[in-house]
From TrEMBL:
Keywords in alphabetical order: DNA damage, DNA repair, DNA-binding, Glycosidase, Hydrolase, Lyase, Metal-binding, Multifunctional enzyme, Zinc, Zinc-finger
Family annotation (InterPro entries): FPG_cat, FPG_N, H2TH_FPG, Ribosomal_uS13-like_H2TH, Znf_DNA_glyclase/AP_lyase, Znf_FPG/IleRS
Annotated PANTHER family: FORMAMIDOPYRIMIDINE-DNA GLYCOSYLASE
Family statement drawn from the similarity comment of this UniProt entry: Belongs to the FPG family.
Domain FPG-type, first and last residues per copy: 244-278
PROSITE patterns from the UniProt entry: FPG_CAT, ZF_FPG_2
Formamidopyrimidine-DNA glycosylase catalytic domain boundaries: 2-93
Any one Gene Ontology molecular-function term assigned to this protein's record: DNA-(apurinic or apyrimidinic site) endonuclease activity
Protein's name in the database: Formamidopyrimidine-DNA glycosylase
Organism: Streptosporangium carneum
Requisite cofactors: Zn(2+)
CDD domains per record: BaFpgNei_N_1
Amino acid sequence: MPELPEVESLAEFLRERAVGRPVLAVDVFAFQALKTVDPPVAALVGLTVTGVVRHGKFLDVDCDGLHLVTHLARGGWLRWHDDLSGAKPVRPGRSPLAVRVRLAPASEDGGEPGFELTEAGTQKRLAVHVVREPTEVPGIAGLGPDPLSADFTVQTLREIVGGSRAHIKGLLRDQRVVAGIGNAYSDEVLHAARISPFKVAGTLTDDQVAELHEAVVGTLGAALARARGLAARDLKAEKKSGLRVHGRTGQPCEVCGDTVREVSFADSALQYCPTCQTGGEPLADRRMSRLLK
């Protein structure tokens, strides 16, 4: 799933290539992805892209005040093309292609650049909204503070965790609490902070909150720095190459050399290092425990 660093990098990528270009066409192939009907998608045609920003894990393309907002979900991605003038239509449901946006060429003899939104897998969760204000999207309206903003201070995080009975892993992933962190970077943050994913948030000491804040800002900032300037097609590989525990089950921890372990759930899994995070004790894999009963 694209998280804050990747979505921010996609926003920067589109700002460099799309801003200032009029929209020639918007074709929707996966109709279940379109979550709004007013304004219609056709209202974007003829408008000019004036900005691209990120809200948490939402990508917002501003077209003269009308916003094309996308949440890429688990299997979604954005593909840029320098020329879509010869692109062929696809049959709905027969392709991972969900939406295609064609933009005006820079000159009369240039190609028609643009981007496509795609979604792999059988679970179709990619969401596209056309709205007059970004806050009309329910997920954006309820976002918590952005962890890379100046407002996200140690005191802000202390107020978030204070008194919470939630596990810190789940709290970090809750977009209403902190915007932009998903499964992968929550694993990375907690590894950097040397905190168990099942630690009850409200039991963190002041020193642990300060260390967690440093880990959040440092981990996301470093990931964004690595991704900055890369083409959209290269962002997935860059994300994977920079992860130290997430997706590395069975491999040695780069910090201490212990084996990275995993806890599996119904539709996801988390990874952690026992030595770095849980005092050397492996966490119970709840899915395996159920199978053994």
